[in-house]
Amino acid sequence: MANESNSLTDDVQDSIKNLLADRLLLAKMEAAEKTALLSSRLLISMLAAGLALLVMLFLSLMACYYFGQLFGSMLAGFATVAGIYLLLLLLLLTVWRRPLQHRIENTVVRTIFSSDDSETPATHS
Hints:
mainly alpha, 3 helices, 0% strand
């Protein structure tokens, strides 16, 4: 009888160890999946931001030359565009900072805690 209870106890302990090991592996795999998803979104966002920066650069140069011809001075044209960007920067720092910060935080948290049924790489394969 003692042998049976020791055997049963050993079996339960082995089952618990296997269950814990499997749960740990699952948690690691889910963390890796979330990290990959966040990394891919970050990389795509950085690429899009880089392309948008190039577009804005050329549009800004066009605006500088336009205002330069309009005002009769290239310096005034470039200063006008610089002033517009300075106003946008001040607006960003004073008015839009908190809403943008909260939106980014919410996106990251939503991505980390999203369920398996949402946009994860495993569901798109």
